Amino acid sequence: MSAPAFSVVVTNYNYRDFVIEAVDSALAQSREPLEVIVVDDGSTDGSADLLRERYGSDARVRLVTGPNGGQLTAFQRGLAQAKGEVVCFLDADDRWGADYLHTLGEVFDARADIDFVFSDVQLIGNESGRQGYADDATDLGYTVLGTWVRAHWYGAPTSALALRRRLAERVLDLPPEFVAQWRISADNCLVFGASVLGAKKYFLPTGQVDYRIHGRNGWWHDQKKAREFLAQFRSRCLINYYAQRMQLDIHALDLAKHEFKSRSRPTWKEACMYADIALRGPAVWWKRLERAVAILSRGARGKHK
Questions:
Q1: What whole-number distance in Å separates Cα of residue 149 and Cα of residue 65?
Q2: DSSP string of 194-249?
Q3: Which residues pair with 118 in a beta bridge?
Q4: Residue 216 pLDDT class (50, 70, 90 cuts)
Q5: Would you call 167 helix, strand, or coil by DSSP?
């Protein structure tokens, strides 16, 4: 089986000061991408002219410009141009280390069943530190019910997300009314959508994604806001839309034990969450209880390792 080719989608809106560094980091990968698609979303700071001057004659780079529509629109425009089997997204104010795609490729090459890989991020700029799902690589299996029932976010900011293109096309197939709702933080569409549509997810710490903190970027400074009612309501509506597409109903809750078993090293916290999901199902009470106990037993074994 041939190794999958990578398409990189860089989305930019008024990040003239950073976008060249982002694009250059994609072009400098030790595992070369098939293409780097740079989407300028109606910038007013001269970004488009700078990009044309720098990359207009570079065959590796495809420039896509259009009126400002927001982050979701930029994702959709970039994806429409992508030809690689795997699509990686990169915000214009972030950058990658030279081995990022090589490290991702080791998973996508070896695991045809993996649809979605997300990485840790290293904070740069006004802050420093690391943000990541876990310390080690983790096969998360399926996350449909954890997302649908509990709105759990199995992902990372945009620049640390990679999806098989066939999955990305399904995830970003959203009606026009969602475009206005997700002008920013559209990585929620990628993360929630991939989960509910049945993607198999994998967390891969790479140490290769630099996430820039500079006072204007959304994900980092909106974390507190994301816990407020309106943000949670908006996310719930998005999750429900994907769930309706998959025709999920209460009977899916009886699959909680099977979804829990799909992950390699579940935590005790996850075991408690899935036990709760199992107890909500429509099966007779003793069967629900049996499933919940089995889930907790497996979680307890992992807890003591």
A1: 38
A2: HHHTT-EEEE---S-EEEEESSS-HHHHTTTGGGSHHHHHHHHHHHHHHHHHTT--
A3: 161, 203
A4: low
A5: helix
